[in-house]
Amino acid sequence: MRYYLDTEFIDDGRVLDLVSIAVVDDDGGEYYAVSREFDDSKASDWCRAHVLSRLEPRTDPVWRDRRTIADDLRGFVGDDHPIFCVWNGAHDWVVLTHLFGRPEDRPPVWPPYARELRQWSDALGN
């Protein structure tokens, strides 16, 4: 099954810090969470205006620690050799895999990369 991934993150030039993650599968299943662990003091003005200002209140149950998000994603995706798709999302893949530790610590049936839809679109002349 294909899973379409998008994340929001804080990029301070050295670390990508997960803010939120959304995943939708081919059957319309959805997963969304906001990390309780990001350092908003490192957010850019753009991130504050366009991401942080639009988050659900911290009391909302979508706010979770990174370990819970990783466990939730493992359950949502399962073990069926998923295909992950992103739009201009190399950083999205790094942020997702870092939920499990190092990229090679991701679940063993998950691929080592996400399929980059933006590159396919450009190659097709769209």
Note down, in words, how this protein is organized.
This protein has helices at residues 45-50, 66-77, 90-98, 117-123, and strands at 2-11, 16-25, 30-35, 63-64, 83-86, 115-116. The chain is α/β, with parallel strands linked by helices. It has a 6-stranded mixed sheet.
- Tell me the Rg in angstroms: 15 Å
What class would the helix/strand composition place it in?
Answer: alpha/beta
Shape call:
globular
Low-confidence stretches: none
Please work out how many helical segments DSSP would assign. 4
Estimate the strand proportion: 25-35%
Strand order, sheet with most strands: 4-3-2-1-5-6
What is the percent of helical residues? Answer: 25-40%
How many β strands by DSSP? 6
Largest sheet: 6 strands, mixed
Mean pLDDT across the residues is 93
Terminal Cα separation, in Å? 25 Å
Order of helices and strands: EEEHEHEHEH
Topology of this protein?
Layout lengths: L1 E10 L4 E10 L4 E6 L9 H6 L12 E2 L1 H12 L5 E4 L3 H9 L16 E2 H7 L3
Parallel strand pairs: 1-5, 3-4, 5-6
Antiparallel strand pairs: 1-2, 2-3
